[in-house]
Design brief:
Blueprint (H helix, E strand, L loop, with lengths): L5 E3 L3 E5 L7 E7 L10 E6 L2 E6 L13 E7 L6 E7 L8 E3 L1 E6 L2
């Protein structure tokens, strides 16, 4: 988890390096917001998979597709895995949040 969070109004990339080349990974991406961000949507993409988390301030426990999303990705031949995140709300400058991540070998 991050001490602070990353935010963006346009698509940004995070690259995980040093993974086992061509190995599959379960990736959990956390996208909670502050209470004023209720309903904020963050879209995450790894390869051809995309999921959106929609923050709901009334949820007090971690909830998939609310506070986090789960995707599976395959590291490239150099051991890199690229994650794209962006705001997904309508309107000008939708904010997307990346609060943390967890990566484990896929089962």
């Amino acid at each position: 988890m991050l001490k602070d969070y990353l935010f963006t109004h346009e698509a940004r990339k995070v690259t995980l390096a040093g993974l086992t080349p061509n190995a599959k990974y379960d990736v959990y991406l956390y996208c909670a917001s502050n209470p004023g961000g209720d309903g904020r949507k963050t879209k995450f993409t790894i390869g051809d998979q995309t999921k959106t988390g929609t923050f709901d301030n009334s949820k007090k426990d971690l909830t998939e597709d609310v506070d986090y999303v789960h995707l599976t990705g395959t590291a490239d031949k150099d051991g890199n895995l690229v994650i794209t995140y962006q705001g997904a709300n309508d309107g000008d400058g939708p904010e997307g949040n990346l609060c943390g991540l967890q990566v484990t070998p896929a089962k």
